[in-house]
Amino acid sequence: MINIIGAGLAGLSAAMTLAEHGIECTLISAQNSERAQSVLAEGGINAALDTMGEGDTTELHFEETMRGGVQLADPIAVRALTENAPDVVRKLASLGVPFNRNPDGSIMLRSFGGQRKKRTAFAQSSTGKMIMTSLIDEVRKYEARGLVTRFPHHTFVRLLTENGECTGVRVSDNYTGKMYDLHGTVITAGGGLNGFFPGITTGTVTNTGNITAVMFAQGVKLANLEMIQYHPTTIGIPGKRCLISEAARGEGGRLFSEKKGDELYFMEERYPELGNLMPRDVVSREMFFELRDGRDTFLDMTGIPADTWQNKLSDLRKEVMDYMILDPAEDPIPVEPGIHYFMGGIYTDPSHRTSMPGLFAAGECACIYHGANRLGGNSMLGAVFGGMTAAKSAAQNADKSAGADCSEFTGKDAFAVTHSAVFASETCRILSSGLGIVRNESGIKKALAEINALPCANDTETARKAVAQAMLYSALGRTESRGAHFREDFPETLVNFRQTTVSEYNGGTVRVTFDDIPERKTDDSNDRDTAAEKPYR
Amino acid sequence: MIATIEIQRQKSRTDKPYKQTFAVDTGSRATVAELIERINSEQIPEDPVTWERSCKQKKCGACAMLINGRPRLACDARLYEYGEKPIKLAPLKKFPVVCDLMVDRSTMFENLKDLGSWLEENSGEDLTGDAYEASRCLQCGCCLEVCPNFYAGGKFFGAAGLSPSSRLIAVSEAGDRKRLYGEYGKHFYRGCGKSLSCKDICPAGIDTEHLMVNSNAAAVWKRKFRAGKKK
Q1: pTM (2 decimals)?
Q2: Complex-level ipTM
Q3: Could you tell me if residue A246 is inside a domain?
Q4: Which end of chain A is more exposed for a tag (fewer CB within 10 A), N or C?
Q5: Contacts of B30 in chain A (CB under 8 A)
Q6: Do A115 and A124 form a contact (C-beta atoms < 8 A)?
């Protein structure tokens, strides 16, 4: 038996893949798949399908993904991702995902950040929801056949371990409070760490970050925790940041800043080649500097043609009109960067194995494909392909645990008690002060001192505190600037730091070290290391 | 403004419901979802109201509940819509209560299994152009709450079954159609009284009437209807 934690894109993809191979699995989630964060993904999914007559190749997709991530991702993993991307998108199309189509029936692609070719397949700007609907139906087929057993209102409590090996997972039923031990191999697809920043990210509330935090406390290594993606264009709505998809810029939206009537199209001015479609780390940083100079930042979509609004962005327009009482086709809208994605997470190899035998990771919870900065359109690709790959790897491991079962656990579990809202908001306040778009030693050290002094009321809070410490130690230790991690006291990108930041929790202590990337490319000519971001200009 | 919120609470399915009233000082653009979060963290942290929520931007359907008797997403209900009147929150009535505002909507997902809501073959060309619209369904249950024909455990699955069916009918190839058409007739067409209350209530604004017209044409009248196909 294989147990999958999380029923979003990566979890569904893993379940589908296992079922296709006739392997039974459980699919554990606190709420049904329709409530997963994946439904919020908007702009699209990348694949070098080359349907737009631009001569795109998987090699170029590979190069741009590596470059967008400032060479911090594992090239072996990224190559597998990009080479398989066309098949992944074709598979999704075969499940009935209503991708926008070209007149000849081929899948239409749009421009996205950090990519010189049109490579992003999309369904208006609700691509995540569209893919989820199709995948949910596909997995339902296997539920009906008994290959997938859902635990759809069950919260992760802890991993079951034996001699350092993962042998299963303990879950708690949200309806009854009863706990169950599910034995067998585990794939975690529990989502990113946005729950460490409640109220100020584009993610969901369900995604608390507790799954990764508890696993960290149980000895699973985490990596690149300092790499937090701020999406350039978000708006404040009640209780959270709301994403304005990168598709808005892919379809012609322009960023400008304004002070006392003086308008500056700062991205076009400073980055003539890719302009508004520079990678997110670069755009968010430029916006930060504009805002710091007292200039307000706006997204101007007024030049987008009417048929594009109707056929490619109708949902985005409606959302903006709902929340801002502004028609983006008529007026520029005020936007600011907001926390959107975590490149860091569970340290994962190209087979999606984690540091703990018997545990695999996929989706945003895994640190694997995106290096120091994720390209838009690569997250859903990473989740679907990652789920498939983790499933195949886990299947090889699963033989050992054949005949596994499910039993009720009647004892008490310290991790069954969750963290308090006050603890969460306090952690958020401290982490945001140290881990903004622009960082420096004194800010990070001040945040560390505060985190270290933060009292914990239970084991879950202790686990969360350890992750928060690891995030800050990672940011402190990386005395360079790379991708989403920008240190104003160390603005250069250094070749020596092309290493993975690895965090480990042992005996109550957090330790952060640097690991070599398994396959370091010998040819550095295409590397942003040597000349910071200049090659983009 | 000071908003008055009355919440129907219930410890479990078998416990007696009771009402609790809270006053919250807030702006009129705040949502009901925000108010519940604030009440829980500021006023009753030791005994918070149990409810489901996730995306807080009308895209996941988790926070469906009765707000002044009308099924809505709490993240979509703004205080200014209710003026000075107290806002009354209660769990959806067509599903069993788990605790407070949290209900067990499993019946919806079981229905979709009974409906055979999946493809056996690769999808084909979108026949009606409805796949996008139909895929937007949140499975929140608001449509079932107002439907005069739906009850949990019945054969009629309501608009929460219509949308997935319409998606599949739209994209299915010949090998899937007979099965899908049959299930659509059995679990939707024959039970629907055409009140169309689902169309007015859907928080995602899905045009259920349009889906129904095209799916009826394909599944019941066997017309290869292409009306409504978007270019």
Answers
A1: 0.96
A2: 0.96
A3: yes
A4: C
A5: 238
A6: no
